[in-house]
Predict the 3D structure of the following.
Amino acid sequence: MHETIQARFQAAAPAVDFCSLRLVSTRTEQLWVRQDILQPVNTSTDVGAMLTVMDGGGLGYAATSDLSESGLREAAQRALTWAQRTQDQCVVDYRKVAMPRPQLEYSSPVEIPWDSVPLTQKIDLLREICGQLKTNDAIVDWEASLWFTEEESLYLTTDGARALQHMSYLVPDLGVVANKGTESQQRTFAARGYCRQGGLEVLDTGDFRTAGPQIAEEAVQLLTAPNCPEGDMDLVLAPDQMLLQIHESIGHPLELDRILGDERNYAGTSFVTLDMFGSYRYGSDLLNITYDPTRKDEFASYGCDDDGLPATREHIIRNGILERPLGGVVSQKRAGIEGVANSRAASWNRPPIDRMANLNLESGESTLDELIGQVEQGVYMKTNCSWSIDDSRNKFQFGCEWAQLIENGELTTVVKKPNYRGVSATFWRSLKGVGNEDTVDVLGSPYCGKGEPNQCVRVGHASPPCLFDKVSVFGGA
Amino acid sequence: MLNPFSDLSDDLCTQLQGDEVLTLFLRGEESDFVRFNKGTVRQAGHVQQATLELDLIDGSRHASARITLSGDPAIDRDRAATQLSVLRDLIPYLPEDPYLLYSKDVQSTDRTAKNQLPESGEVVDSILGECGGSDLVGIYASGAIHTGFANSLGQRNLFTTDSFHFDWSFYHQADKAVKCGYAGTEWELEAFQRKVESGRRQLGVIERSPRTIEPGRYRAYLAPTALYEILSLMCWGGFGLKAQRTKRSPLLRAVEGEAHLKSGFDLRENTRDGLAPSFESGGFLKPDQVDLFVDGNYKDPLVSPRSAQEYGVATNGAGSHERPESLDLGAGDLATDSVLQELGTGIYVNNLWYLNYSDRPSCRVTGMTRFATLWVENGQVVAPVNVMRFDDTVYRILGEQLVGLTDSRELLLDSGTYERRSTDSARLPGALVDDLKLTL
């Protein structure tokens, strides 16, 4: 098929400054057992292509699911029309953007392919795991699911660039709701955070097969737990909350297209400005953030981004100092600053924009016990359930499913409805403890939304647990 | 797009065997998207896409799949026929589904309108011409949206709307901006010019020196666009039967009669006056309206066919997410023209942003002010307010602390484009609230 598409693309492409085709085919299968009953098996196959034309400084794109030569020709003509129409009207003269010319192939690491295990066996596994969740009469809803996605993308330019990438994603999840009267508490399997690239071997990296009973017990435990206390105190965040903290208050504010203003009408702007790179103290000396596409089992690894820029590991923040933004080739040209290969599209029907990919907090030297041991009075929170932050990505408030008090260096009472709030620009400077490599969890999310038109992409965040000094913490109403 | 869908449906239905039943659900669009920043074009393009959901039913067993249609009838016939065979082969391996429910009463509908949209390039010229010199950022989306249902029992439901949505902001500096919108099915230059002029007038206020206010409780006016954010969050699991029966609903206390909103608060799903299709993927038609709250008291849930079967009640044609698509909140008696005077001293909130639950069982929500939030003293607008976080329960905001709703309403069209352009809408008044809790 690739050769056929390549030939049709070459025949359909107009003679312009730059023309690319991005073909994306995706297959998904979602298996879901709820209250021990198999829900409808959802499968989908999707294929289409986006043609992008730059000519005379203008840019146009056209996305089509008609992959015949005439279909691609029509799309090319539409893209060309928009490129011509926007000459002298664009935010940047696209003639000045040197688009990459990749030559590469990339694939996810897969040890146990999804299709190597029969459907009935996968359903039986989910039934078995779901069956472990109803451990108490207070549990009113319980479920286990697997979401598999296989995606292949082919990127071509008329002058010979070619990148072929084959990805395999798996998202396992568990959920339990416990209820008493009008009080309900939910526990999940890291809120779908244990998502990885790979095959069914992913299920053995995050205790998916055995985590159920503990999650169920915790949900019931929360029903009778006291509210999280209110006050300024030390806060230890587990990796499945750190992923959200990194995502919202480091990742988004460092997206270069936000800094350049593209997102101001929707996802928002950023408190970060271009002059901060190279000198701004974003966090304490303990804060080291990398854009790392080389961790191949992480959710958003790839060989090159959707503008063809090869992906390499880069420090974003080093010893607390801001070094570079998350910006792809177009944004880098507009800003005159180096970024990373993160120009990404949700699929063939959306144009690439600056996105997070794998954005990780590098490990420190403490065990989890050592982090908790430093705390005289504080809270340990895990598993995100609420997120809200202002449009400059500064004032945030996040909530977790589960928390435990820390008193005199030890975990004590379980508390419910834990929330905390702060300001990104100062919060990371209160980082005073970082877990070591053994405490790191490689997590991510299938749902990062942004862009006009809107796009939802996968992101990866690997992090150890971290300790923060004097954070404003509080509980429920 | 809908004519080929009908032909494809007819063709697939002839391929059924024995007692098989087939349902088909099409969603497609032909859209132009033009993205602006700093009064120039960032990206411009076109998206043509269509997906077909097939559900093959054999007794109580069924299997479903979603495929992309190419637009070429011959290719799509082959793709769909192949998928049908795959589903047929899959069914024997699946257990019976106790909650399967599909429409067996044939009720066909056809809601299509003549396309009156201008060529998008002309609109872009118009936008850049009218807004020249302004720091404009936003998106223009335009074109046809198609939805179709067909089943082997002979039902056909077709829906097409040709519409546009220009959603934009005029920026002063940093995060100080005015949010604007113009949407419809016919582009009228004079109407657009009035919107531009109105936005620029508001920008004059935004250019004043901003005021930073301390956390505390404030009297607040929530414009319809701000109120829409709160109601949209409530739609996230608030009104569906499944969320209620599984005790996940943030409105559980209202459902159980332990809490209520202000008397006179009448909220409904108003399909009749909304813009969304009136049918769901199993072929059930939606009633003209479903009362969600009546006189401040929780009334009826939205019920998908699957929930209907699971909980033994009748469906009201809700989609699988059981989420309102055409919200309608009744007007109050607060004179819209005197909102500033009624507000007196407090904050006038045009937009809220990034709402979430901070205590779901208590329906406590948090979020940020955004765009034009103004400090008002003695009924006079004084200055823009730097962004503030609120954190309060819906039962207070729309219950005990709700002073009143305005006597006029705005029709708000959802500008969302995740996966495809939305057809959701809301018709809402503004709300005057006492003691809104600001926390950061």
